[in-house]
Design a protein that fits this description.
about 500 residues, alpha+beta, 6-stranded mixed β-sheet
């Protein structure tokens, strides 16, 4: 089915327990602190019903059913590029990348399970020999048929990293009981994003030294499941201020803590449990798909930054000055480099065990690293280029007062464009770069999935980058060193599980 925005909003009134700051929200679709973002997600669903976007936003599956491109499984380079055009369209239509976690992004994470479900079941510990693959595939079909939104919640509480034993003392989510019907879990997931607006919470975990088997849980629960409580941070939304705050008024997706108080999860919603070694080898790949989308989003955000920089310098009359043009060229290079990483990751992609065409992980991860390394300086540049136009400008109410208008209009008049248009540009600059709402977006990009240090650390854990891996073959040849026998060495490359190595292998 193709869900509508109306269908989505109606589904949110289901009794879920959501705290936003100090308030217990009765209905996230109607409460002033949450309704704007709920409407934003509704807009996402309605995009799929726009006649002019039918070919971009939807596809016809093998059974003749028209579905959202969210569920499109790309098996060739051309398929992947089609998926990227879809993601770009969503980003452009919903604020130029200022709505990071839409349903298509959240559900993209599920691809790793359905692509290669067998290891999740066979490497589980404590399931009594149950086959979890059926539940994995059934869940995919469930969310696809309903066009639902499954938000990931993988991050556990911060602990004392100086000792592995601290993990046992953590309030992290863990299994407290196992029955013939399912498992009972208790504890917290420390960070979820947009969970208050989800149909399902997709539970997972990242490996950390000292993690206990009972803390290794992958599965799904509904937000209104008895015992589940969402505790979000204070909202930064500017509800109802669409003119003054054109982006911040569109909602805050609300990062949150999720409390599980003896929550029952039936076996058909359990994807994997009990195996820390499996967690260290494989599940980080769950987020590869999300990280590819993150790079696409950062490319679109770089385009928005470039465009805003061009517009504001044109309006204030500095665009043609050679020193300003030199500074503007930095934004061009930033955008073009990110675009190059996107395209290269696609062209250098490979086929996964399940037959999906996957972009090159190293290429898109280092694209993300490039964004994180450079974006702060470019934010400083755009604010500096705008000068007072980024901060000192009248409110709409002041602008509309007849006794003030002549004076204010004179201050906003430049060589081109309407004076009121400069206000619109300034408001976007303020929302993006000089507000609590914008700062939260920047922080999200910095820590989304993995921060810069983790990108580099996880990169060096990938199979082909070990000394015994294929990336060192040329160096061994030039140095006259005999090639390793990968099966008989203790290298990290050979230590990887076969299925993990296949996921990482570059296309030959």
């Amino acid at each position: 089915m193709l869900r509508t925005g109306k269908d989505y909003l109606e589904s949110l009134n289901d009794g879920r327990k959501v705290w936003v700051g100090d308030e217990l929200v009765d209905n996230v679709a109607t409460h002033p602190k949450t309704r704007a973002y709920a409407q934003r997600i509704a807009e996402f669903y309605d995009l799929h019903h726009r006649a002019d976007l039918t070919d971009v936003m939807t596809f016809v599956d093998e059974s003749g059913e028209r579905r959202s491109m969210t569920w499109f499984q790309h098996r060739t380079l051309e398929d992947l590029q089609r998926k990227r055009r879809y993601m770009e369209t969503v980003l452009r239509e919903l604020g130029g990348g200022s709505t990071p976690r839409t349903p298509d992004v959240n559900n993209y994470v599920l691809l790793t399970y359905v692509d290669d479900p067998e290891p999740w079941s066979t490497q589980s510990v404590g399931t009594g020999g149950r086959d979890l693959t059926k539940g994995i595939l059934d869940f995919w079909n469930l969310v696809r048929e309903g066009d639902l939104n499954a938000t990931p919640a993988f991050v556990d509480p911060q602990t004392d990293r100086s000792r592995e034993s601290a993990q046992a003392e953590s309030p992290a989510l863990r299994i407290v009981e196992t029955t013939d019907e399912g498992i009972v879990v208790r504890g917290v997931k420390a960070i979820g994003t947009g969970t208050a607006f989800a149909d399902w919470i997709h539970i997972g975990v990242f490996y950390r030294p000292g993690i206990l088997p009972e803390q290794v849980i992958f599965g799904a629960v509904k937000p209104n499941t008895p015992g589940v409580t969402l505790v979000t941070r204070e909202s930064n939304v500017r509800d109802g201020q669409d003119v003054e705050h054109p982006l911040a008024a569109k909602g805050d997706e609300l990062d949150n803590i999720i409390i599980f108080e003896d929550v029952f999860i039936p076996w058909e919603r359990v994807f994997h449990v009990g195996n820390p070694e499996h967690t260290s080898l494989y599940p980080q790949r769950v987020f590869d798909w999300l990280h590819y989308q993150a790079l696409v989003r950062q490319m679109v955000r770089a385009e928005l930054m470039l465009g805003v920089a061009l517009l504001i310098t044109e309006h204030i009359g500095t665009y043609r000055l050679p020193p300003v043009q030199t500074r503007l060229a930095q934004f061009v290079g930033f955008h073009q480099t990110l675009k190059a990483h996107v395209i290269a990751s696609e062209v250098e992609g490979f086929t996964t065990p399940g037959g999906l065409y996957k972009p090159n992980v190293l290429t898109f991860d280092f694209g993300r690293a490039y964004y994180l390394e450079n974006v702060a300086q470019l934010v400083h540049e755009i604010v500096d280029l705008a000068g007072r136009a980024s901060l000192i400008f009248p409110t709409e109410g002041q602008w509309q007062r007849p006794e003030l208008r002549p004076w204010l209009e004179a201050l906003q008049t430049g060589p081109v464009g309407k004076p009121h248009d400069r206000l619109k540009i300034s408001r976007v600059i303020r929302d993006l770069f000089l507000s609590d709402w914008g700062s939260r977006i920047s922080t999200f990009e910095n820590f989304n999935g993995t921060p810069l240090l983790a990108i580099r650390t996880l990169t060096m854990k990938r199979a082909e980058l070990s000394p015994g891996g294929p990336i060192a073959d040329l160096a061994r040849k030039v140095c006259g060193i005999e090639t390793h026998d990968a099966e008989n060495t203790g290298s990290a490359y050979s230590a990887q599980a076969d299925y993990a190595r296949r996921q990482d292998a570059s296309k030959s």
